[in-house]
Write a structure and sequence with these properties.
The chain is of the alpha+beta class and 505 residues long. Helices cover 31% and strands 22% of the residues. The protein contains 15 helices and 21 strands. The strands form five sheets. Strands 8-9-10-1-11-19-12 form a seven-stranded mixed sheet, with helices on both faces. The protein has a six-stranded mixed sheet with strand order 14-18-13-17-15-16, sandwiched between helices. Residues 1-22 form the signal peptide.
């Protein structure tokens, strides 16, 4: 069935490729079907791809040094005590339904992020007490703690994406299927498991600098990497996201394609259910989690599967980050110690199920981990689920362990707080250590880089002893790009910026 679906998709792409190129249509191959296109509720990294075209943010970050760049905002001022931030807004901005973007619209968006049921942005804006409308073009964020640096970087992510208030109120829980924002492109249609289509918005605030950008973009979920690569090489798509190192040799001598890369801010990890519902019994004991971790050889994984293009990892930042805790380096595999820990925990034979999405990288890694654990007397079953389904089951506690991927954030808080704080919105295992929470809050309020480094290293060290998850590697982001496409800049957050892309006929 999967082969048939791939064949049908390839045939469809071939039929429309010539027409698409003639009409200035950019086609982007995604590794999976995105979840909701509501910035408040979106969770999957693939969802950020179309949302980046649809929804401008208050700020963005530079690809090279991750410094802030104004987008819908023009600047900001931080109070001396660090407990308020005044942001100046860009004049003349319209949402795609014609509504004006102003201070009241921003205040509405912040309230929506903080109060909408199921919001994944609430934790990112937890430092905000309220927003004051100073005048139509400026607002003041009043903070309940001096966390101005964290706030600004949160506003350069999904929390800074602005949606049209009228449309959001009218559509309610259907907004994610018909998003209205203030980006360069407006939403046209979505065919589930088929495509997401956006087209140039004539009233875009920066239209003068985007005249040469594609008129239309089609985002296509192509989970089969073979089909995705062949579609890129034949010109049926012009961008293929998240290539793996094993894809690279196929493209090395193809003049029709170029591969660009950037170091990634995120990490791949196995999360253990240690406290979410009845299925948490398997991994409630830290010795059991530690035993599984010890049976995995991260270096062998990275060498065998990724040709050493990725970095073995064990923390929420990579070994090259200033926040990495050198006191707890990537551990060596120790099967004997793994067996001993299980004995101490009174587990005669450990058996559990790992939920894995159909993505090739994690599928192959899961099979290798399965073999490694078997050598330690651990039986790991693999159950494949679509990413959105897997994360839904994780939220409900309907899992033993999941093989997850976090796309990474410029501020280290974005890599740890939501995942491991007691009430974090993506803390699916319900892992909770008040001492770690206290350190993370202190790190949020740190006013110097040195203080922030010391605190995050302490957090890293405590997580390295608690094993709420097993971080396995930090990757590079490899993106396949047609030679006919110019202006593409890879970003460490793996999100494709479409502004400035030019497609030759």
């Amino acid at each position: 069935m999967r082969k048939l679906s791939s064949l049908l998709l390839a045939t469809l792409l071939a039929c429309v490729a010539g027409h698409a190129a003639a009409q200035g249509v950019l086609r982007i191959g995604l590794v999976e079907d995105p979840d909701t296109l509501d910035p408040t509720l979106n969770r999957l990294a693939t969802g950020r791809q179309p949302m980046t075209a649809l929804c401008d943010k208050l700020f963005d970050v530079k690809a090279d040094d991750l410094s802030l760049v104004p987008q819908l905002a023009t600047g900001y001022e931080v109070a001396k005590d660090g407990k308020s931030v005044t942001i100046r807004l860009r004049p003349g901005v319209k949402f795609q339904d014609g509504e004006t973007f102003d201070a009241n619209a921003l205040a509405y968006n912040v309230k929506r992020h903080m109060t909408l049921p199921g919001s994944l942005r609430r934790t990112e804006l937890s430092m905000v007490d309220h927003v004051d409308v100073v005048d139509p073009s400026s607002v003041r964020f009043v903070l309940n703690a001096p966390q101005a640096n964290l706030l600004l970087y949160s506003l350069a992510e999904r929390a800074g994406m602005m949606v049209a208030p009228d449309a959001a109120q009218k559509l309610g829980d259907r907004f994610g299927s018909q998003p209205v924002c203030a980006g360069e492109y407006r939403f046209v249609e979505r065919v589930p498991q088929g495509r997401i289509v956006v087209e140039k918005f004539a009233g875009y605030w920066d239209a003068a600098h985007t005249a040469g950008d594609p008129d239309r973009i089609e985002y296509l979920p192509i989970g089969d990497s073979t089909v995705r690569l062949s579609s890129l090489r034949s010109g049926q798509i012009q961008i293929a996201e998240r290539l793996t190192p094993t894809d690279l040799p196929q493209l090395a001598n193809d003049p029709r394609v170029k591969v660009v890369s950037a170091p990634d801010l995120g990490y791949h990890y196995i999360r253990y259910n240690s406290g979410n519902g009845p299925r948490a019994a398997i991994f409630h004991d830290v010795r059991v989690r530690h035993a599984v971790d010890l049976a995995i050889d991260r270096r062998v994984l990275v060498k065998a599967l990724f040709n050493d293009q990725y970095q073995p990892g064990n923390q929420f930042v990579g070994p090259t980050s200033r926040y990495y805790d050198p006191a707890h380096p990537v551990p060596a595999r120790d099967v004997a110690a793994s067996r001993q820990l299980l004995q101490q925990a009174g587990v005669a034979h450990l058996t559990f199920t790992l939920l894995v999405p159909p993505e090739r990288e994690r599928q192959e890694a899961a099979q290798m981990v399965q073999a490694m654990l078997a050598e330690a007397g651990i039986t790991m079953k693999i159950e494949t689920q679509d990413d959105a389904v897997m994360l839904q089951n994780a939220r409900r506690g309907n899992f033993d362990a999941i093989f997850n991927f976090w796309s990474g954030r410029p501020h280290p808080d974005g890599n740890v707080y939501a995942q491991y704080s007691c009430n974090g919105p993506t803390n699916d295992s319900k892992f909770c250590d008040p001492a770690i929470d206290k350190l993370m809050v202190a790190a949020r309020e740190a006013t110097t880089d040195d203080e922030r480094q010391r605190l995050y290293r302490e957090v890293n060290g405590m997580l390295a002893q608690a094993y709420p998850s097993s971080v396995l590697w930090h990757r590079r982001t490899f993106t396949g790009v047609s030679a006919k496409l110019t202006g593409f800049v890879p970003h460490p957050d793996s999100t494709i910026r479409v502004k400035g892309l030019h497609l030759q006929p």
